[in-house]
Design a protein that fits this description.
alpha+beta
């Protein structure tokens, strides 16, 4: 993975509720082409070892313009990954981070749109946040002003930073 270090925007394991058992992994990279993405997936160690039953690949537009390593954590709170997808028409539910409620915006580690790999049509958003706990995250995205009510699928994963810095 060191060959991809300069492209890393975020990475780390998703975790079970005990925050010790890994359930999956997140990798967000700024790569130049679909072929480069496929090369990364082919070289990712856990994928090569058959650890994952499945994986998803999306284009990610980094709306914060920073990496997870540039996030300035506040309190010592856990981190969460949220994947929100819409089954409606393409582009439904794409929310600018500037329009998010302040309480959510201040906790953003990562935020961007997800698009299909081949046609680049937006299908949702991905964000990583720091919060007191899973219920606090759910409250933040249920906030009437968050815009998350347009998504049919919203998955909240316990998550932590991974990889070398």
């Amino acid at each position: 993975m060191d060959g991809f270090a300069e492209s890393m925007i975020a990475r780390g394991p998703t975790l079970a509720a005990n925050r010790e058992t890994a359930t999956g992994s997140l990798h967000v990279l700024g790569l130049p082409s679909v072929d480069a993405v496929r090369e990364f997936v082919a070289h990712e160690p856990n994928n090569r070892a058959g650890v994952y039953a499945e994986h998803f690949i999306w284009r990610f537009e980094n709306l914060l313009g920073r990496t997870m390593w540039e996030f300035s954590p506040g309190a010592d709170e856990p981190r969460f990954l949220i994947i929100a997808r819409s089954n409606r028409k393409p582009g439904a539910g794409v929310i600018s981070h500037e329009n998010l409620p302040t309480a959510l915006r201040e906790r953003l580690i990562l935020y961007g749109t997800l698009s299909a790999l081949d046609d680049a049509e937006p299908v949702g958003v991905a964000l990583a946040v720091q919060a007191r706990g899973r219920e606090a995250v759910a409250e933040l995205i249920r906030d009437a002003g968050s815009g998350f009510d347009v998504f049919q699928d919203v998955d909240i994963h316990d998550w932590e930073f991974g990889g070398r810095r």
